[in-house]
Amino acid sequence: MKPLFHPRLVNDPFGDPGLYVDFLFERRALLFDLGDLSPLSARQLLRVGHAFVSHTHMDHFAGFDALLRILLGRDKVLHLFGPPGFIDRVEHKLAAYTWNLVGNYERDLRVRATEMSLDGSLESAELRSRTGFRREPVEIPALPPGILLDDETFQIRAAFLDHQIPCLAFALEEKFHVNVWKSGLEELGLPTGPWLRELKSSVARGEPDGTQVAVRWRENGSTMERAVSLGDLKEKVLRVVPGQKIAYVTDSGFTPANAEAIVDLARGADTLFIETAFTYEEERRAAEKYHLTARQAGWLAREAGARRLVPFHFSPKHTGEADRLVREAMEAFEGRLITY
After folding, report:
1. Which of 123, 214, 277, 300 pairs with 205 at a CA distance of 20 to 30 A?
2. Neighbours of 265 (CB within 10 A)
3. Where does the pLDDT of residue 1 fall: very low under 50, low under 70, confident under 90, or very high at 90 and above?
């Protein structure tokens, strides 16, 4: 299966937490946390339409300014999601700048901030560059508790963790996966490209086989177009299989409630990105700081049935000991050590 989601940590495991998820065949990406974004190019940041912030400690939110700087002056909607009080914090960030000239900009950047309450309900507000980012309430579609985003082909679910403040963990779940067979494209004389997104959308909507799908591409400087029936594409090009799942967990104390929430959120994940702040010898320190040890992270990943574990958010105290943190996490993940 060629995955739709291509995740990568923004920084090394000792740097600010953050996950960049690129989409195959699509000009869009997601961000989980907005810490130091300097490793990402302007081109990569321009693909971001949705960012999910676990909490607003500085190492998780300071990069908002960098993202704003890149997007300002463009016709775009930036969707931001965070825990209780998040809309106020986004508004305060924007209010720190002077916006007397933005009313003359041809393009209107819209920042739509959504916060999840402890009961799972959502509240949104929009702040537009053309009005100097004045806050305006926005109605949003009703979603089941815990669901932040319900896209045509994927969902993003969140769960609250205790970090001495409410902190969100996230799961990105593809509803189903459409494999594209290159041999089938070659047989039909079709290229890969952005048109495959609309093809997958047609499948997601359950459109009839007789639906004509417009295939457009560039060839020798000219735009080419051809209509192909959805039935032919489903027969020769597509295979529908179970979807991909990625979970992102950071800044969580190892408590029974947190463990239950993490295991439930990450259950069956193809990849679990989970903080691994301290060694097993530092359980007391980890508890005081509301963080996980490497063994705790590995055990949670094993309990969740994750297929792959990616440890990150190492304590700077252990600079030079990355191998030890990874080893302890993997030993617990593989069941070679203690249980909790």
Report:
1. 123
2. 22
3. low
pLDDT at 204 over 80: no
Domain locations in the chain?
1-146, 178-241
Query: Are 247 and 170 within 8 A, CB to CB?
Result: yes
Question: What pLDDT, on the 0 to 100 scale, is given for residue 55?
Answer: 98
Question: Which amino acid type is present at position 227?
Answer: A
Query: By the 8 A CB rule, do 61 and 53 touch?
Result: yes
| Reported pTM | 0.87
- Mean pLDDT computed over 231-258: 92
Residue 225: how many other CB atoms lie within 10 Å: 9
Look at residues 125, 172, 134 and name the one whose alpha carbon lies nearest to residue 151: 172
Which amino acid makes up residue 219? Answer: E
Q: What's the pLDDT score for residue 235? A: 86
Neighbours of 151 (CB within 10 A): 13
Q: How confident is the model at residue 250 (pLDDT cuts 50, 70, 90)?
A: very high
Tokens of 41: 């190019």
Query: CA angle at residue 271 from 337 to 82, to 5 degrees?
Result: 110
The per-residue DSSP string of 100-168 comes to TTGGG-SS-EEEEEEEE-TTS-EEEEEEEGGGTSEEEEE------TTEEEE-SSEEEEEEEEESSSEEE
